[in-house]
Amino acid sequence: MKTLKLYLVPVLLSVFIVLASTMQTSKETEKVQKSSAVLKAFGTMKESIPHQLITDYQGIVIIPNLLNAGFGIGGKRGKGVAMVKLPDGKWSDPVFVTLTGGTLGLQIGVQSVDMVLVFRHKGVLAKVKNGDFTIGGDISAAAGPVGRSSTASTDYKLEAEVYSYSRSRGLFAGITIHGSNLSIDKSANNAFYDNKLSSAEIFEAGKSTNAAVVDLKATLGAL
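RE: above sequence
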């Protein structure tokens, strides 16, 4: 009996490791699916991200269910994905990211919003690698113009480095976001892709056949 117990220990440990890995991967798959759902919801709204903006700009960050809380001092935190355009014009595989930050002001309550950041140059995201940068410090973001085309927006020139959008309780609008830190979620990337690739390497590969990733790319391409 004692020998049997000793034999079962490594077997049980292996099972626990596999289950833990599967749960982690499922969590990241859900994040990709939620990101796709955010884009689909944006696309069905009367006012949305101008098509020309998606066509001309080279990077995007999608944060589903960003928590924005304020009791005198505000704070926000959310996890999502970042993608960049490849040389052939298609979108890369998603890199998992975390957005955190704080604001000062007379805010009361907790709110969950879906946020999308559209980047003019993909190099801004590609250079993050395994580090981070601050929106409003290293790079500024402007409230994004809305409308189905650039001519329907107030900022038809589309010249900002980053445009930001949010959706909450059915309301869609461009918003201003400052002082937020965008960082690479290395543990999520390692779990989802089962490797030690940097964010830059994931961006460059763009070959995932994961069903959730394929759907996300298709949704973004159709936005």
